[in-house]
Specification:
Four copies of one chain form a homotetramer.
Chain A lengths: L2 E6 L15 H18 L10 E12 L8 E11 L3 E10 L2 E14 L10 H8 L2
Antiparallel strand pairs in A: 1-3, 2-5, 3-4, 4-5
Chain lengths: 131, 131, 131, 131
């Protein structure tokens, strides 16, 4: 079951082509992943207490349709692959059920104090596998 | 021979992780592609007179190293594939010769007035093939 | 009575100083003004049907406290002055009741098709005066 | 004599109104102030070595004209007031000599390690007064 995050498109998200600027989908997707992690960690330890952060290792985007000012978008996020040091998210951006863009984002886990890679906590991997 | 575009990293490009925010590389790459097109069209017709615009159809990014505040980056751009309706750019982000990130960006050509796809002008394809 | 709009702070809003980048408050404030206008126009004519847009003429910001990653901010917006061709908003950014920043933003009304100034619709001025 | 910094307008700087998004002028102005500080510190100690950073305390902007995609803008920056703990910059954004926007930005000096306010180094104040 995908995690769903809603985004309203404002002027700051658009460009002179009259559409959502293509890089802004990465921001939207980052916000959705953060809320997904917040939702699974509510009754667990806090991510910031764990000193864990996720850095993007690679990503790909397919742009199918343009999105426009005032559009209400939904980001559907699932975890495609959960490994000891990385998570790969599949994130679909929808408008009224129509696919606007699809992102695949692979993030690695690091310790925010040492900036070194760190294994992902077990409860995150378990929760990720249920998504 | 790659087209080279230089970018200085400012506060507005960074995030609380102390590094360049991952979506900003797409902005840098867009700026580099624009300057590449400007450089090949100088003695030709102006892109805006041609009513031509390029929209991003798909892209992928590999992040190899972090970039930091005040870094001076170079974007090396070549055209990997030039077709009648699309161009695929390979864009390498370097710092002192070290590879920070690599992007592949496929853009389609549209008429800015009709927003319909339009064949890419011959002189652009010719110039693209020399890159 | 102020219009209230909530904003969560994500990585894309922060800078390498570890705080919300100072220009991002203008984005937050724009989003809040848009939602204020949406809330007063729901049972009225749609702004986009009226071909009305608002452009920022001037603004000032006082930064009192820093905001940080994951903060949940509230933007409290009131209309300080409603005139035939301009609205001046007072926008306070709060975190748990503490004042983070205060903005004063004067916008002018233009017709989106002609880009010429246009008087603000009466029902907007009336609603604005009640805020 | 003003410090001059040139900015090219790209898609990422514009919005669906077809103009430069109003908050982007704050980014441009930040970049200009950074280059001004870089220019006066070249043969002096490096700002990052001094562990000095500047945070924006307040600002105001007057928007006179719109700027558009591909515009080449100049930011003319002078120091209006140099005090022990703050600098106030006057920054004019010009296009072919025509005034697009004017900013007044007051920044305070902090120690990046302690995040506490710190007196501005004498050589910065001296250089600032010559601007």
């Amino acid at each position: 079951m995908a995690h769903i995050f809603r985004v309203r498109v404002y002027y700051s998200d658009t460009d002179a082509g009259g559409i959502v600027y293509h890089a802004r989908y990465l921001d939207f997707a980052e916000h959705a992943r953060t809320e997904l992690l917040r939702s699974i960690s509510e009754d667990k330890e806090d991510l910031s207490l764990l000193k864990l952060a996720f850095v993007v290792k690679s990503l790909s985007v397919d742009y199918n349709q343009s999105a426009f000012l005032d559009d209400l978008l939904e980001i559907h996020t699932t975890v495609e692959q959960a490994k000891r040091f990385s998570l790969t998210f599949l994130q679909r951006v929808l408008r009224n059920g129509e696919e606007i863009a699809t992102l695949r984002v692979k993030v690695g886990s690091i310790n925010v104090e040492t900036a070194k890679i760190e294994p992902i906590a077990g409860w995150i991997l378990e929760a990720a596998e249920r998504l």
